[in-house]
Amino acid sequence: MIEKFLVYLFFSFALWRTVEEEPPFFVPSDWPEPSYYFEGNPLTKDKFALGRSLFYDPILSRDSTISCASCHIQFSGFTHVDHAQAHGINGLVGTRNSPVLINLAWLDQFNWDGGVGNLNGHSINPITHPKEMDNTMEEVLKRLNNSPFYKKRFQEVWGDSVIYTPYLLKTIAAFTVSLVSADSKYDRVKNGKEQFSVQESKGYRLFQQNCASCHTEPLFTSGELKKNGLSYDVEFKDAGHALISGKKRDSLLFKVPTLRNIEFSYPYMHDGRMKKLKEVLQHYSSIPKSKVSVSKELKNIKKPFTDEEQKDIISFLKTLTDKSFLYNREFMFPKEER
Length: 338
Known about the structure:
Cytochrome Bc1 Complex, Chain D, domain 2, globular, two-stranded antiparallel ribbon
């Protein structure tokens, strides 16, 4: 009896530790392997939780008014929906719509222009951008090292009494890399648990014929940079990847966004110029084949989509909504004692 009781205690303790220490990241079945280098930043529950605290904390901004979550709101797929371009410190307006933070572990380049190639370094941009958080890494580290709350938690996660830049960046990445969305109706259909409606099936076929070359399943993005056929905006003067590479041929190249949770991640396009999915479909189905500044995939889209076909495609796109992701309590603002 004693032996059985000890075995029971051992397995109960092991199960408890698994529940307590496992971060929420997972690789869905039949998905490709993530490209994120987990060996360089092993995930733990504590590191994820600390990253979540930092994500929601305005301490990272110069005047402590802006957090990562100010522009990346969970219920919209970790973007914002109340304005076309991102708003930062002092109400300053940027030139781009904030990108969603969904399934980042499978991506190799970040930001609309593909200017960041490593998720671990991704948060430097918003922290130091003058129209976003407008802070310096030196000031952020000073604040964190002077905070008993953060000193204690970084010590527990990293085993060091001093908080350094790599610890900070990798900790935030531990949270954002864990934002996996893979439980939409589309996923349940693929897993044999549900069926598409007639309209959703029609929309899926149209999607596969016209959209899937760039919005590749199951991530619904190829992760590549494409010229989407939008005209150059003289107000923002945003040349896309050309601002990074300095090469004229890269002008108006923007990263293909994921379509997961697209129903709630409006407004659309890199500058948020479109408010409705119908506008997006109308744009893509009206690009002339003769247009030079557009990627070749977009020249082969059916022209134009009928009203009925637009409704069918939108019906399918709504099956990519993952409410278990949008309302996952593990991703919400942490309720913790300071």
